[in-house]
């Protein structure tokens, strides 16, 4: 078997380019071992309680969004415990939209944490001033190390967390370049597990490539619950926000 050192894709034959992440010369041969019949170790797990499926409304799971247009795209509001990916071309207004979203959602009972690895506090505060966003329940953190972000969230949880952006975060526990396939996959998986465990609504900002595709591994789109795409002419006043995927 040949194993890709970047995205962990496996295949039977060697090739110069990985078909999963398109990286060159990353397929390395690994020895495979055959386990004799009857020699497998018994795996012992914990017994879990099984409950009857009870169909119910999801309205109580949604956080109120003051913008009717955005709430409509989200299917009625931002869902607790969901992981949303907002993508679009550079300069299209992703950071502006998420700052507005924070303003529409933040209140005393539902504070919002805005995490930026690209822009500092002065830049975000300047944008908020231009937009007329003055909400004391929006908190800010400038950080790009994934482990430090998760430690901060474990110590002080927030109902809504915005991360700008997934391509600049870096997991110290994993090698590879910032924005690489393995890095983005680990960051998305970590955020997904945290959002489900703590019932936190998390929003990841992502970029698109020159071809118009989402940057990062294709599995990123499968991991998240909702994929939003912001498009339009960045030199004009209007934008179109499309829900490319929405599990809710």
List keywords for this structure.
25% helix; 6 helices; 3-stranded antiparallel beta sheet; 2 domains; 12 strands; Rossmann fold
Structure description:
This protein has helices at residues 68-73, 94-105, 121-131, 146-155, 181-198, 219-223; strands at 2-4, 10-11, 27-29, 62-63, 78-79, 83-88, 112-116, 138-142, 160-164, 201-205, 226-231, 240-246. The radius of gyration is 21 Å and the shape is globular. The model has no long low-confidence stretch (mean pLDDT 86). It contains six helices and twelve strands. It has two domains: 1-33, no CATH class; 59-246, P-loop containing nucleotide triphosphate hydrolases (Rossmann fold, 3-Layer(aba) Sandwich), CATH 3.40.50.300. The longest helix is centred in the C-terminal third of the chain and has 18 residues, at 181-198. The protein has a seven-stranded mixed sheet. A three-stranded antiparallel sheet has the order 2-1-3, with no helix packed on it. Helices cover 25% and strands 21% of the residues.
What's this model, at a glance?
Helix content is 25%, strand content 21%. With 248 residues, it is an alpha/beta fold. The chain folds into two domains: 1-33, no CATH class; 59-246, P-loop containing nucleotide triphosphate hydrolases (Rossmann fold, 3-Layer(aba) Sandwich).
Task: Give the topology.
Layout: E1 2-4, E2 10-11, E3 27-29, E4 62-63, H1 68-73, E5 78-79, E6 83-88, H2 94-105, E7 112-116, H3 121-131, E8 138-142, H4 146-155, E9 160-164, H5 181-198, E10 201-205, H6 219-223, E11 226-231, E12 240-246
Parallel strand pairs: 6-10, 6-11, 7-8, 7-9, 9-10
Antiparallel strand pairs: 1-2, 1-3, 4-5, 11-12
């Amino acid at each position: 078997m040949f194993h890709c050192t970047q995205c962990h894709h496996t295949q039977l034959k060697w090739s110069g380019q990985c078909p999963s992440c398109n990286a060159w010369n990353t397929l390395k041969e690994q020895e495979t071992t055959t386990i004799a019949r009857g020699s497998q170790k018994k795996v012992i797990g914990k017994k879990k309680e099984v409950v009857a499926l009870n169909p119910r409304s999801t309205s109580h799971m949604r956080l109120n969004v003051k913008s009717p247009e955005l709430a409509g795209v989200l299917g009625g509001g931002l869902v607790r415990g969901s992981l949303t990916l907002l993508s679009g071309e550079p300069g299209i207004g992703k950071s502006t939209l998420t700052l507005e979203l924070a303003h529409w959602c933040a209140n005393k009972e539902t504070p919002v944490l805005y995490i930026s690895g690209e822009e500092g506090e002065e830049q975000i505060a300047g944008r908020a001033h231009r937009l007329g966003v003055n909400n004391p329940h929006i908190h800010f953190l400038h950080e790009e190390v994934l482990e430090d972000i998760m430690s901060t969230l474990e110590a002080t949880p927030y109902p809504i967390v915005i991360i700008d952006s997934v391509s600049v975060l870096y997991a110290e526990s994993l090698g590879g370049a910032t924005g690489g396939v393995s890095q983005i996959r680990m960051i998305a998986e970590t955020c997904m597990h945290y959002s489900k465990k703590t019932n936190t609504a998390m929003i990841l900002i992502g970029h698109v490539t020159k071809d118009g595709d989402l940057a990062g591994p294709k599995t990123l789109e499968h991991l998240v619950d909702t994929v939003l795409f912001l498009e339009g002419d960045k030199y004009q006043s209007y934008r179109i926000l499309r829900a490319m995927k929405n599990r809710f």
